[in-house]
Batch of 3 targets.
Target 1
Amino acid sequence: MVSKRLIWFAVLVLGVCLSGARTVHAQQPTPSDDEVNAIARQLFCPVCQNTPLDVCPTQACQQWRDLIRQMLADGKSADYIKQYFVVHYGARVLAEPPRTGFNWLIYIVPPAAFLLGLYLLFRAYQAWKRMPKESVGDAAGELPSAANDPYVARVEEELRKRR
Amino acid sequence: MVADFGFGILVLTFLVALYSAGAAFYGYKVKDDRWVESARRGMFLTFPLVTLAALSLIYLLVTGHFELSYVYAVTSLSMPLYLKITALWGGQEGSLLFWSWLMSAFASAVMLRKWDRDREFLPWVALVTALTLAFFLSLSLFFENPFTRWWQTSSGEVAAMFPPAGSIPLIPPDGQGLNPLLRHPGMIIHPPMLYTGFVAFVIPYAFAMAALITGRTDDRWIRITRRWTLWAWLFLSCGLLLGMRWAYDVLGWGGYWGWDPVEIAALLPWLVGTPFLHTVMIQEKRGMFKQLNMILVILMYVMVIFGTFLTRSGVLSSVHAFAESNIGPMFFVFIGIILITSISLLIYRWGDLKSETELSSTSLFSREALFLLAALLFSGIFVVCFWGIVFPLVSEVVTGQQITVGPPFYKQAVGPLFGGLLFLMGIAPLSAWTRASLKTIGRAVWKPAIPTALVPPLLAALGMRSGAALVGFTLVAFVVFVTLYEFWRGAAARSRSQKENFLLALWHLAGRNRRRYGGYIIHLAMMMMALGILGIELFQTTTQQTIATGQSIQLNGYTLRYDSLAQFTYVDGRIVTRAVMSVYRGGKFLGQLYPRYDYYPDGQPMTIPAIRSTLADDIYIVLVNWENVSVLQTPFKVYDNPLVLWLWIGGFVFIFGTLVAAWPDADPLTVLAPGQEVRLAGARL
């Protein structure tokens, strides 16, 4: 009977200990400033305009950094923390718009415009059809001499323009 | 009294500007040059008039007339004299007046030139500059009047130019004072530089419009405005650099460029102006790219007004702020008028702007083609930046959702484009005009390519493993070697032909073609800046630690020992909290640094990082006043910023190079004095 009670007591103690151990395991050591800033710099202050959270001097941002520290201490991942801020303060806290819906335009328009420019350039180059094999006015041929001194060339050009 | 005088002068200047615009147009219509001359003289008059208005405001700022709402907002009794003067551009109303003053200065200056050979441009240049000036003066008169006063009414304090019914004048004993962030030397010079750059771009635009309206679409307008554009570009560049230095010194986030919309708004005209400075050369030399140059000059001007609109209307904080802003809709309308007018004229003259040169004789690898490719890369960067600041507004209007477009977006998008530009900066100087092939470029490039090829293995041997860094530094080295090779090649040839010693030949060579060699100096300066940018962007390291006196922070081989913390009140009333940090490397004492933060009497804080700069790196310490600071627990944020000093050195070299390129030449007609002769390939003039 005694031994049975002892067994139950041991199981209880063990259970409590294990439960405590689980709690201790979940409670991380206090995260360093660098760990907090690593996440904070990926977020923007929801109040101030275009200020990353890691350098924002407002009281609100100090509290938000403390919140990040607490969440890190609770074992939350960086993605979870970022998502938490998005849910509570909107997508504007992210350094980049999420790649969803209308936001895709921010990512599509610049490369599309560049490709269009490249195409127009290609069309322009196509107009320049007869390409010689050898350079006539080689860069090496632009060395200053009595014949093609840039200064003299400029005077010649000016005179040509005034005719 | 002085405020009334200043306001009256503004009204008068506004009327004179409107008169000048009307007289210029009427003179053209009735073909009576007297009206045009009258318009020209009217524009002359605007400069002394706006100067008087600006001086009136400066007087009121300096003498502490806090009954003026603007003086109250930007000055205080404790501010030193120089800050009271520079408070002229420390707030919205004053900076708009300052903009008008600069505009009138440029408008007057351009009217001073000899117009004999370009008389047909005069009415239109006068019209465009007068209307631009009138627009900005109207903002000061009707929306952002710097001369409004405080009045006490039964319902509270009101700021108005004229007393509301039943009100009495209200004279506060002291003002709020200038925002502490604006009390830095960089921020004192930065706005005038930036505004000067902005305003000066109006001149090439005015001539471009004149060319379109008159149909004189040859390169004359380009030749007249080339130096205006270069000076504008120089001022704008200096403004951007000073802004970057200010951000580095004052904002305390370890960097110089945060991809903030306000910064980007100032960068946009620069991104258009830089390719324009290159493509105008092609129009001058070969009569090509007239359409492109016209598009660029219009875009440049639109971006100047658009940038001013973005920063002045409050639209960047929210589209709702735009709706509430007095001047936002005005800007919107003005930009619309500019765009519609310019595009209509451009379409009308599109056919006249065709190339004078037979394009088929231009090869794919010619300098013209490479310049065009560079213009495309600049356009790519422009689109990224423009879309990056506009999209959040579009998103808010369309979806109602506020979003942030921050540094990661810009860095990913513009990094490869800047890499492409570096490559072209290396290749283009070696390419010939009109005709070049891979073979001819190869013949020119092999010499600078040899030392360039040694760079990646050397960097790898030194421990560099980042692919982006290896590519970036190799491209920088390539451009530097090509540019130096160009100097050497030209000077050596001249030395041989003129029997001069090498240095004298170099001096004469650069002196006789300042534009070209000034441009090469600018390229070298850009490479210095690129070094700084690559260093900080790719290799910046940082740590934040909270320590007590006597404890140290380790970073990249540096030991930073926290010695002491002191707090004292400065003569101007601000409370200064200053730490003393001893810097060691390898056990060797390098010096002490003093990071601090100041609290101004009005409660505004300012963080001043301590910086130790060397050619290798900057140690940058911030006393993190946004966390709890005490002697026992003091938070410091330390950055190690490699190579960033090269950015600022490059800035000085850049200014020098631009001055070389922009310095006026003697008029060729006066160069060829009677009796002098110049031999041209055997001919005699």
Target 2
Amino acid sequence: MESFAFRKDSDVSGLLVRSLIDEKGLVRLHLDSYNRFIQSEFKKIIEEVCVIESTKGDVKIKAANPVLGRPIYDPWTGKQRIIPEVTEPDFVTRPITPMEARLRGLSYTVPIYCDFVITDGDDQYEAQQVLIGELPVMLKSSICVTNGLTKDQLIEIGEDPEDPGGYFIINGSERIIVSQEDLGTNHIFVEEGPSNSSVLTVSKVSSVTRTANRTTTQAELTKDGRIYVYILRSKIPMAVVFRALGFVTDRDIASLITRDERLQELLTQSFIEGETLATTESEALRYIGNRVLGGFTKSTEPKKRGEEIIATRLLPHLGTSNSQEVKTKKAQFLALMIERLLEVNVGSRQPTDKDHYANKRLRLAGDLLAIVLRNAVQNFVKDLRHNLDRSRGRKGRIQMKALVSANLLTDKIVHALATGNWPDGRTGVSQILDRVNYLSTLSHLRRVVSPLNRMHANPEARELHMTQWGRICPSETPEGVNVGLVKNLALTAIVSVGLTETESSRFEDSLYRRHGVQPLSSVTNFTGLQRVYFDGRLIGYHQNVHQLAEELRSRRRSGQISPEISVALTASPDGKPELVVTADSGRVMRPLIVVRNGESALTPKHIEDLATQRLKWSDLVAAGVIEYLDAAEEENATIAVDFETLKNSSHPEKYTHVEIAPWAIMGVVASIIPYSDHNQSPRNTYESAMAKQALGLYSSNFRIRPDSRGHILHYPQRPIVTTSGARVVGFEKRPAGQNVILAVAPFEGYGINDALIINKASVERGLGRSTFFRLYEAVEKKYPGGFTDKISIPEQTVRGYRGSKMYEKLDEDGIVLPETMLYGDEVVIGRVSPSRFGSQLQSVEGGGILQQDTSVALKHSEQGRVDRVIITFDKDGNRLVRVRVRDNRVPELGDKFASRHGQKGVLAYVVPQEDMPFTPQGIVPDMIINPHAFPSRMTVGQLIELIAGKVGALEARQVDGTPFIGEEPQSLKEALKRLGFNPAGVESLIDGRTGERLQAEIFIGVVYYQKLHHMVADKIHARARGNVQITTRQPTEGRAREGGLRFGEMERDVLIGHGAAALLKDRLLDNSDKTTVAVCENCGYFVYFDSRRGEYVCPIDGNKAKVSLVSVPYAFKLLMQELISLGISPRLKLGEVGER
Amino acid sequence: MSQTELSVKVIEDKPGLLTVEFSNLRREVLNGIRRTILAEVPTLAIDEVLFTENSSPIYGEYIAHRLGMVPIKTPDDPEILSQISIDIQGGNPPNMRVEYQLRAECPPQLGQPLTVSSDMLKPLGVEEARPVYDNIQLFKLGQNQVVELQATARYGLGKQHAKFSPVSPVVYIYKPVLIFDKTKDEPCDQHVSVCPTNCLEYKHGELVFTNPWDCILCRACEKACKSGATKIMWDESVARLTIEATGSLPPKVILKTAILILLKKFKLVSEKVGA
Ligand code: SF4
């Protein structure tokens, strides 16, 4: 056996994962899904849905051959190709770059053209091509401008060459479609019925076609032994459904369902019921036609309706035609559902494990866009039909251009993407792309969201399932309500795209022809035959499925069939092997190295070729060295964790695969944690959340990007202690953090509760400096009636004028100049708008138009220098001014920092350098943290990182801290000793204040620290007096509204406890919403003041009123009046203090 | 030499690096000198930058901060320097300032980014007050980008901003002392091999330093010695002070200035007291 003389395991794993990511990128899933969508589903949906018949009958319009865009000249590559376009208000169309879309607040879209074939009675007009709408373009997809551009060209058009793509630009903002985790579609799920109902067992299938047509079919067994099938929420007895599908006799039905007589017994009750309802096919159809509700069918005749329902609403994924062939398929599928139902009921089969990842599918951008497009086209069709009906009165040829309103389709799609509200009722499907740092962007793009209700406990669904190994990151999930429901893909996880319909049927054909699978209907003698399933359907029988599995797997490895096809062996309840072949989309697969006869198929030659780039990842897949397994097939695999295990095993032949990289079970964020295998697991979870808040270089084109807010760290550094994951993911090119000399020691008690002590000189030399940006914008809008906004310095007469000082920094054109220093509330862009009532008042007063100041001012609590002024036009041709203000942020007390091990803390003391302790070499720590941070958190990884960082700094190299395979702590200690340091990482320090040697040796080394985006400058807030709310007259709340700080219940309790009544009154009344009301002592109601007569008037008691003035909280007065308005009569009884 | 007599010995004297051994200098005084060097010895550093043009990707405040970090040759008269320090601390900073000019433009024909380094920072008038090193990278310019600025250097102290500090590390160590109890020792060479700086050896059955100044007081040997015979202590009466200058001032001047500052402060105190 050839030995694995690899330089090091970590090199090999790093190389493999790097080649995977370099070739496919980390957002392949989105790109593949979108590319597939625009290639096929997009056309099918339009052709399927877009059929219009005029209600008046004679005219029929059918959409055909929809295309995305027209090849236009691409100025960047010099070729004719399909690229996104923008239509300016003057109807000129021209190509657009993503950066232009961002800068001008446009959507990055490509037009959809469609041929319409019109038949009017017997006449058929020639097809007319019409623009029907626009489709948002995913960045880096096959129709994106960036596709095929070199690095330099990307920079030229304003893109970051490292940008992953995979998102859309909608109205200038970057939005992603978050992958949705879904239960497998077109697969049968069996579960126990709810405990308090009459249902014993339920068998369900969610049937979805590739064009996003979705229905659920359900069969259930009730306590009285009957089986029902649900079609469109109507309960139909099982026998009736089978009869409607052409299986009339009980015998036929029973033998279709199962050949197990014990199970057949259980059908008796259902047959008895079926007998009374329908005995023939047409009776059954009529029954269904009468029973199933829903106004979607056109015919009124029950039998016709029944037929239509069976065709389109029962298991539509098997076909929507009325042919007997499709019906038989449906009957067979239904039979399988019922067989499973019975098996689970008698206990011979376990209910489906819903959390098993083989039963999960990810719905990606393409699938989700299909839903939106389908809905949008349906709307479009409705509108078109309406327009068509209206135009029928007119004579002449039907002009499609006049009938089509192109904005309708576009608006629907854009609206869904802009709000995240999906037509199927899901919310939050699209989100604004996280751009805090590069990792957070990548992590967001690899996020997987479960549709389960976050309010529900669902404990099992939140737990880590063993089948998530290598597919879902075990660390990265939020804490709190979403724990375990929001997940992130592991580094090497790959999502299947699925075979197209033609590929799929060709493959199924080959199973029959080439591999000797006997189709269902042809089998009469079942002895010795084993079942074969394909995409959830029982498709036939085979003599020896083990052999069939071998054949299929070897064909897959030799590239004859798609590497995505999963071949899994399972066992039926009677112990017979069954073969489950799956090729649908959305399965999470992971690559593994194939082991043949106990030897890895990956040879040192491969490694060398990979390192010299003579081989690519896909070559390895094509050569069958690496294959993708989904969770179903992985159940058949025995995987060695590394080559070592394989080599040292006494039975190497028992292994089928070797893990590519043990650290690749982590997701994008968790993989940057060095020595994470030494940490307590929740710490890795905390860090996964925190790394997404670290400031760094989020994108290299940050200077031109119009982000509404952003941070840039001035001196981001690659970590000295790095991981293969961080390298592969690109963290080292867009880092977010700095290497810091860290001492673990107490310092005057300032380190209490995780606070940090920082060296003043380090801060002054640039540690942790960052720049904060905020974008202010103003549009010069045009209003109906010829009114328009004007960007200028407002005149003093304008309503809402803020005083000349506030406009001081504006240039003549009403916009600040770059590099001007601005402080809170100063105007950034001056603007005057016509008053809302301007037009009416004009005629009344005869004067000029009443105008209003709608200038954009700097946020009250911020300051900054004007960084960039952009003047452009938005999509409606209005002038758009965007001003970016930057603010230099030097670390100050209260700023938050964290290491990569979930150890966060705020700055508590900035120590002058001369007061800091120093080592014999004169090294002064940049930061000091308290040793209490370690014992309870058990972040041993940080201790190892500190030593590793020290070694790396001394040897001027990066240390490999990859979990599981990084440099051993022991060898690092030896290295330290070799370098003349105590191997424990401790040193003798001298106190800078007294000059004494510190009694204890101090643990000191280099640790990577992240500056998190929670900064004091954004939070600091206090007020003495200020605004009040209009309704309650109590002080406003929140920093943004200059609010007061709440004196809450608990604070109130304290004052009561102390008996400090005067202070209590002062806080809650005098300094809050004190108001004086006049009350009539006779009736107890409020009275009003008549200013003409100069006296109080009680509407009830008139002259007899005895009016007194009382001080009450305004909120109390409001409560009284609200009660009165409810018809409740609250009366005030006044008396002197102390009286009862 | 008596046990209490002060002695000073220069151990190492290289440009930019000075090591002096003091005997019988009190810890407080020694530390006082160290702290004064760090915080109170004045140097020139750029403190104000006026941009007339900046089309570089780097912001003004960023460039200004970097310019401040550039060490600048400072006139090295300890007498004047110490007086400047006293004046600054007394609230009368000297008016002395040095103006610099920098203009850099990356011509398009260069074909690559232009690295602007400290040699392009041209002093106006005072020719001596130039950056200590010519090759400190300040920033880079892309094609057609221009930076034009005027900078002003002033005297300042390390305690105002680290850029005024004349040294990078300034450090002293006390003389390590090895106490070896022969009676307790069992034959084991653990403590010798464990020493990361290899400064221990057995001589005539007794553990001794090869060179005490190599010891970093890490106490690894003490921990490794199971019998407890080895003990590492330090002698505060003997210390070595190392000054590593940034280049703006020679280390000897730094040391002398620091001492003068201390003396002047003492003098001020005694004057105020009226003695
Ligand atoms: S204290 Fe450390 S450096 Fe000094 S002799 Fe002992 S082991 Fe060696």
Target 3
Amino acid sequence: MANSLLIVDDERDTSESLKMFLEMKGFTVRIAFSGQEGVAAVREAVPDLIMLDLQMPGGMDGWQTLKQMKQVASSVHVVIVTGSTPDRGLEQLAVQEGAIGIITKPISVDELVPKIHSFLQGSGP
Amino acid sequence: MERYVFNAHAAPILLTGVMMFASGVFVLLKRPAASVNRNFFLICLSVTIWLIPTGLGYLSIEPDLAQLWFKCDNFGVMFISVTVFHFVTSFLQLERRRAVRTGYLVAFLFGLVVVLTDWLVIDVRKFSWGYFPRWGYFSIVFFAIFFGYMAASFNSLWLEYRKVREPARKNQIKYLFLAFALAYTGSVDYLPTFGIPVYPFGFISIFLFLSVVALTIIRYRLMDITLAMTRGTIFMVVYALVLGAPLLVALPSQPQIERLLGTRWWVWLWIACAILATVAHYSNLYFQRLAENRLLAEQRRYQATLRRASEGMTRIRQLPRLLKLTVSILSKTVGLTYAAIYLIDMGTKRYALQASRGKDGQPAGPAIEADDPLIQYLNVHKNAVVLEELHLQHAADPGLREVELSLRHLGAALVIPSFIHDHLLGFVVMGAKRSGGIYTDDDLKVLMTLANQAALAIENARFYEAERERQAEMFHTAQLASLGKMAGGMSHQINNRFYAECIMAGTLKGIWKEMDLAGVPEPVKQLILKTMGDLQKIENDAVRGGDIAKTLLNFSKPGKAARITFQDILKLSMEAAQFRVKFGEIDYEPVVVDPLPSLDGNLNQLAEVFFNLMSNAYDAIKKKQEAIKEGSLKLLAGQTYKGKLAISVSSITRNGVTWLQAVVHDTGIGVEAESVPSMFIPFFTTKATAEKGTGLGLYVIKKIIENHGGEIEVNSTYGEGTTFTMYLPVAKEAA
């Protein structure tokens, strides 16, 4: 069965491109353009992995979204996607908040796919 | 029973004798180790033995007693020529030991003959000035020897004068020659011994000569004989005219004076002498000053210039300009053939040539080691070194020969040291004066003042230079920091844009790749392939742009120094590197020697250092693999290449301080020798533009290591690999 992914990012073009690419690579992909939409999508169906952008407009940033998603489905696997350079503090915070990892922007799609696979394996039952 | 009677003619002779002895002793005590001074004393001694008994002979009432004294006097005379010869040979540094020894032996034998027999001093004659000895024919043998040694002395001086090139030395020899020639007029005293009634004024010539030589040895470093001669002559003439002439007039008219002034006439004489002596003293001073002003006008002029220059020095803040100016002022105003300044290099502790002027006597080497004999000598004596003086002294102290060689090596006639807080900051090398003149005590005083002022000025300039560099550095750091902050603030925006480009370009590229292009017309197919290539380029550029932003961000990265271990650093950097470096494809050897002392540092920054080094090493290995594949790099037959990255950390002790030494070694492509020195320069990169790399990596690494109080070195050979060695200080308590 294809792994299901949820992309939460306010950048529509990017998200749609990414969806197209990842579907080509055999994933089932949904996209959400805000925190609220993301939480709603989780409520609808819990994906295998969520790629959550940290910086989003609309009063709900990545951290708040993460918190609410965890409330909806405590075992949900979330990877933080961020444009800032990762350091220990950010990693620790991500783990504390219940994320399983960080992906730093920018990242080439060729690197992204194996990364997603490794997160899926690490998060598998 | 009265044996002596007062005779005015004896007074100047006795007086000269006493002064001669005193000046001989004085010169000897000034520098007992120097053979020139010792031999000068011997001349004085023999002349004293000649003069004092002669005076006593004048005073004697009985001819027999007078003859005894004259025998004694001639005992001294026997030695005069050989002591002169001895002095000249030591002054010219000639090896004439046998001649000197023979001379002393012969003089002694003659002395015995003179004292014990009547062969030389047959008897005495009564002249208008008193008794004087009569010499027999035996004295002809003595004259032969006397003239022989004197001729040898003059000849040696003459030969040396023609051989020597240095103008100062030439001058010296010339004047010494003239001084001896002058002294030789003292031979007039031989005339009365053969019955010719010429007044024996030999003591005057001798006095003149000796005061000249004594003055030169003591005050003028046996150099500026012109000045000393002038001084001696003025002294003689003034005293002779003011004091001597009235006495000479008064003496023959003794009975008339006695009649005029009564039996206490000699009281008046003493009073007159006292007044005349005072007058003579002040006139002497006056004429001395007059002569000096004329003779030293040139010297005074440049000394004043130098003083003014030294006052202005501290206002110049650019070191190279200051040094150049100092050298040019010195050589112009003093009239030097050569001048140069050497300053200590704080790093190597060597004294390096900083500025020079003049063609002659260029130094052979650009730097003087701190253990050079000259440097050691300057450190001990803390005073100017005059080549001429060393030359005269080193017979007594062989160590000085080394110092002299150093001086000659530098082309120096004079070296003036500069001290700051007792440390030898540097020194000024001065060649010979163009005039051929010498460096007088006054010169040295002015030059030492100048050197001290220069030291202060140099210290000032160095401080300003360091301060300027520090400010530039601060400005640079501040620039980078603000750039970092800005980049930090914009990083989301920047990275989101790059991310969007990556994803879109990558997706489009991926879609085209999956597309079945069968049946598509060839031009369209070509266009699609071109588009795919361009999309790949866009993706690469976007990733690289993100890397640049990240590197710049390291300057604004938060995080304070904390107690950390190397395991922490390597773990964190591995985490970051694993996505870029495929450790499985190469031999990776991390070696950490446990237990290592911990260190105080910024974990993120240090992890960044190792992440970058690992990533660079990986790139280098890949590049070498490519080069082997392309055939531009050949392996030996039967060899395969996998590539190795080895990291080892250990603690070492350097100069009693414990450091953590981290070595990152790879067997990658390496760097061309000419590029190695530029590796740490910002935006220098050996990677092609299309490849990843920002050109900031190693610069940032160096800055991070230095901010931690550490050092980084690189060693690289093209085709062989690269080794980075870092030293980081251990945590304070851990040390």
